[in-house]
């Protein structure tokens, strides 16, 4: 389930959107991290091809609803991040979802090759991309949120400690 009950009443600062229910397994990694950091967020299925009107509405109202970043995941002909970015100045972080036919290379190329003037920050294919998009959104929000900045520092330190303390069999 997206978000946590504790955050249910907070206005979402980050939107996680995806082209299909089938993208959730990947995008859930972004949700998990935002939950872990206590960032109020929402998750929605918004398809560029199957629900273009919903996509237009989502992008057009994103800033006035208080969203500070939109994490958009899509696979195959992955037009969602770019078409959302075309209709809002809220930063869009694109996550290429691994497709069955082409292993996500199609998704990656669809998202990364934006024309100059309409940026989408593009992340790695799959889970790593979803996790990093969430961490990037957290990092963006942390410039105006001291508590979040401290939690991000602690997260990095814990990650480094884990590597240092790791032992090979
Ligand atoms: C894209 O098509 C979605 O983002 C998804 O990754 C892909 C396949 O969608 P389904 O056919 O599984 O619904 O729009």
Automatic annotation (TrEMBL):
The keyword Transmembrane does not apply. InterPro entries: PurE_ClassI (IPR033747), PurE_dom (IPR000031), PurE_prokaryotes (IPR024694). Pathway: Purine metabolism; IMP biosynthesis via de novo pathway; 5-amino-1-(5-phospho-D-ribosyl)imidazole-4-carboxylate from 5-amino-1-(5-phospho-D-ribosyl)imidazole (N5-CAIR route): step 2/2. GO terms for molecular function: 5-(carboxyamino)imidazole ribonucleotide mutase activity; phosphoribosylaminoimidazole carboxylase activity. It catalyses: 5-carboxyamino-1-(5-phospho-D-ribosyl)imidazole + H(+) = 5-amino-1-(5-phospho-D-ribosyl)imidazole-4-carboxylate. Keywords: Isomerase, Lyase, Purine biosynthesis. Pfam families: AIRC. This is N5-carboxyaminoimidazole ribonucleotide mutase. It comes from Spiribacter insolitus. The gene is purE.
């Amino acid at each position: 389930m997206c978000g946590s009950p504790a955050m249910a009443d907070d206005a979402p600062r980050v939107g996680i959107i995806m082209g299909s229910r089938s993208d959730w397994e990947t995008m859930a990694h972004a949700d998990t991290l935002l939950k872990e950091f206590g960032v109020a967020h929402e998750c929605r299925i918004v398809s560029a091809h199957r629900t273009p009107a919903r996509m237009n509405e989502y992008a057009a109202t994103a800033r006035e609803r208080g969203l500070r970043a939109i994490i958009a995941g899509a696979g195959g002909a992955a037009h969602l991040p770019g078409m959302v970015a075309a209709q809002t100045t809220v930063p869009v972080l694109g996550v290429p979802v691994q497709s069955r036919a082409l292993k996500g290379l199609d998704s990656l190329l669809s998202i990364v090759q934006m024309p100059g003037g309409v940026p989408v920050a593009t992340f790695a294919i799959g889970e790593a991309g979803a996790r990093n998009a969430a961490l990037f959104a957290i990092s963006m929000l942390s410039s105006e949120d001291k508590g979040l900045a401290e939690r991000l520092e602690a997260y990095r330190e814990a990650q480094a400690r884990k590597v240092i303390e790791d032992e090979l069999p």
